[in-house]
Amino acid sequence: MGADVLISVIDDDDDARVAITSLMEALGFTTEAFPSAAEFLACRNMARTRCLIADVHMPWMTGLELHRHLMQSGRAIPTILITAYPDDNIRDRALSQGVVCYLQKPVDEDGLLRCIRAALDRAAPEQNSS
């Protein structure tokens, strides 16, 4: 786990995106940050992403919609959803659809790191087969 692992962060809130990206980099991860799901979907490094951290509530495409889109298109990137507006129904639906974790902002560093480890454990078999 470390610099060779790409974590993509998608959040339309500039401050939240910068905070999470900075935390990931402080923990030794390589990151890419995007203000929208559309910009992430258009990026060149999407295939290198081993973990996705996405805000639940974003315009045009929510974090959960992005996760579903990736799954339906055969790109099962382990996803962690974060939100400032927790909702038990959305959390339950997200977890039942294969999201690794559903966290409330501001995220707890230890909890986020546990979720990243779980996400990377899910990504490991795909890494070995590609």
Described by the principal axes of the CA atoms, the overall outline is globular
Number of helices, counting only DSSP H or I runs of 4 residues or more: 5
Please indicate the count of domains: 1
Strand content: 15-25%
Q: Could you spell the SSE succession in H and E letters? A: EHEHEHEHEH
Give the CATH topology: Rossmann fold
Q: How many β strands by DSSP?
A: 5
What is the class in the CATH system?
Answer: Alpha Beta
CATH superfamily: Response regulator
CATH-derived architecture: 3-Layer(aba) Sandwich
Distance between the termini: 18 Å
Average pLDDT confidence is: 92
Structural class: alpha/beta
- Into which percent range does the helicity of residues fall? 40-55%
Uncertain ranges: none
For the sheet with most strands, the description reads: 5 strands, parallel
Strand order of the largest sheet: 2-1-3-4-5
Indicate the radius of gyration in whole angstroms: 13 Å
